[in-house]
Design a protein that fits this description.
This protein has 552 residues and is mainly alpha-helical. It has a domain of 266 residues. 63% of the residues lie in helices and 4% in strands. The strands form 2 sheets. Strands 2-4-3 form a 3-stranded mixed β-sheet. The chain has a two-stranded antiparallel sheet with strand order 1-5. The chain starts with 5 loop residues before the first helix and ends with a helix.
Length: 552
């Protein structure tokens, strides 16, 4: 066990304050504190957060690292705090509303990871549901500042969230169904069940009022989707933990997309001689041996594939400790689509989980399309990355283990993991490789689209600048998904600038880090040691990761 340094203590103090300020964050990392409370998104809370960042940065800059572990912590935390302060100055918190990852969804989503095993848990959840109103009212005040300054969220995002709120405000809406499904290790009393029903109505009514607010703000919403170069630069850096050349990356994205398309076309011909990608996919969609029917069959297939990856890779390319070997594959209670991972609690009493949110009406699934997704979300992807950082408490402080995270590191690693599984022979059939390339193509296309839209780049056909209709057409040509999903995704890119490209750009940086490490080690290069060294650093921003690995 490493003795705590002054930098460790400061980082852990910062984490503790974050957990106190944001009960949803405390819940997500498995802390019991704040289990009956909701987050405060008011303007006063935003100023509170700024003061915490400023005071922590000032204290951190005055401390000298004791060793390389300290140096990495100081680098990573300093970079994060400086960027958070810059983002505050840019005013982005007053326009934080989109169709996938804003407080509008987060206030609801905390209930997905809240403990539900005991009667006390459900008492906490009744309290938490009653406090949804306060959380939404504070958030509403913050958004109002943006609207009144003429710098609020874009109208497109308001309209999407208004629709989502309408889904919550139904007799079978989220909170009603959540309360109705309450079970625990002991029988819940009639009084508690009645309280849960009443609290669910309070939360539902709060969302209805929030929806009315959004409707009233539609005339003040911006018609402009693009965020602009300077704000985009900050957001890109926030999601990557790295500064990149946006124009060079845009050009690389176009080249990478073309490269993946060429690779995909070659694999399509392996599946069906002379076939195009679309023809190969149509052939596979009618292939009975790669079909799964129903969510029960889907869940069991996910679990089998995940368990085998853990067993195999734990013998060869990764050190996988016993607590990490339990990964639960789940069908999510929501039905909005998408697959995601939630990490284990700090003590591993709640294991890591892979969730599949299956939309209504979807009854069949193609294993060739989703094999790589299981590796992305599970092992060697997010589960190995997140759970490993949680596990190594002997060397890392709590902030490094539980709170240091960027999308570029996390999602970049998951895409790196997909390609790695292909390299290792786990995508053995052309069909499985086509599924992996289908995802890689989408991620490359998102680099081009996202930067193109928000920097006002010329369309690739030279007929003006990127707009929504052109982006929709471009994405439709580069993903094999339903029109509804494509529209949702493109709307996401318009409202969450910089996040979608962080996957493919993060993969690029991870691969550059491995190449640099391998070149330095020469004949002594060991893949397992590279993976262990990198993952044992925790979820650093990619600049901090690059610096740390250059010394490894």
């Amino acid at each position: 066990m490493r003795d705590k340094s002054a930098i460790d203590n400061l980082a852990d103090s910062y984490l503790a304050q974050l957990a106190a300020n944001y009960p949803s964050f405390a819940t997500s990392i498995g802390l019991a504190s704040g289990a009956a409370d909701m987050d405060d998104y008011s303007p006063e809370a935003i100023e509170r957060d700024l003061k915490l960042d400023q005071s922590t940065l000032s204290a951190l800059q005055a401390l000298e690292p004791r060793d390389d572990v300290d140096q990495v912590t100081k680098d990573a935390l300093s970079q994060q705090l400086i960027l958070d302060i810059e983002l505050h100055a840019a005013g982005l918190q007053y326009r934080d509303l989109n169709n996938i990852a804003s407080p509008a969804q987060g206030i609801r989503d905390v209930f997905h990871v809240s403990p539900t095993a005991t009667v006390t848990d459900w008492e906490n959840l009744a309290s938490r549901m009653r406090k949804v109103k306060d959380s939404l009212v504070g958030y509403q005040k913050t958004l109002t500042i943006g609207f009144e300054k003429g710098d609020g969220p874009a109208k497109r995002q308001l309209q999407e969230v208004i629709t989502q709120v309408g889904q919550i405000n139904q007799p079978e809406g989220f909170f009603h169904e959540f309360a109705k499904g309450a079970t625990a290790d002991q029988e819940l009393s009639t009084a508690l069940r009645e309280e849960l029903v009443a609290a669910a109505q309070v939360a539902t009514d709060a969302y209805a009022a929030f929806g009315d607010f959004l409707k009233s703000m539609l005339p003040k919403a911006s018609e402009q989707d693009a965020i602009g170069r300077e704000r985009y630069r900050l957001l890109s850096k926030s999601f990557l933990g790295a500064e990149i050349d946006l124009d060079e990356t845009y050009k690389w994205g176009i080249e990478e997309l073309a490269r993946v398309v060429t690779e995909q076309e070659a694999v399509a011909k392996e599946i069906l001689p002379g076939a195009s990608v679309a023809e190969a996919i149509a052939h596979l969609e009618n292939y009975p041996t790669t079909k799964l029917h129903g969510t029960d069959e889907l869940q069991k297939w996910m679990q089998r594939l995940s368990d085998k990856a853990i067993e195999d890779l734990g013998k060869t390319h990764f050190d996988i400790a016993e607590p990490l070997r339990k990964l639960e594959c789940m069908i999510a209670p929501t039905k909005h689509g998408g697959i995601y991972y939630t990490g284990p609690s700090d003590d591993f009493s709640r294991p890591g989980r892979m969730w599949w949110s299956v939309p209504d009406g979807v009854e069949s699934f193609d294993t060739w399309r989703e094999t790589t997704t299981v590796y992305h979300e599970g092992v060697p992807g997010h589960h190995l990355q997140v759970a490993q950082a949680t596990y190594i408490r002997e060397t890392l402080n709590d902030w490094r283990r539980l709170a240091s995270w960027t999308s570029g590191h996390g999602e970049g690693w998951a895409l790196y993991a997909e390609r790695l599984m292909d390299e290792l022979g786990y995508l053995a059939t052309p069909a499985d490789r086509l599924g992996m390339l289908d995802g890689q193509r989408m991620r490359a296309a998102r680099v081009v689209l996202d930067i193109g839209v928000h920097l006002g780049k010329p369309k690739l056909d030279g007929t003006g600048v990127w707009d929504f209709d052109y982006a929709l057409e471009f994405m439709s040509k580069n993903v094999n998904m339903s029109p509804e999903f494509v529209r949702f995704e493109v709307t996401r890119y318009f409202g969450w600038p910089g996040q979608a490209p962080s996957y493919k750009i993060g993969q690029r940086i991870w691969e550059q880090i491995r190449d640099d490490y391998q070149a330095r080690k020469g004949s002594e290069f060991d893949m397992k040691k590279f993976h262990s060294t990198a993952l044992n650093l925790g979820g650093l921003g990619l600049d901090a990761l690059k610096e740390a690995m250059s010394r490894a």
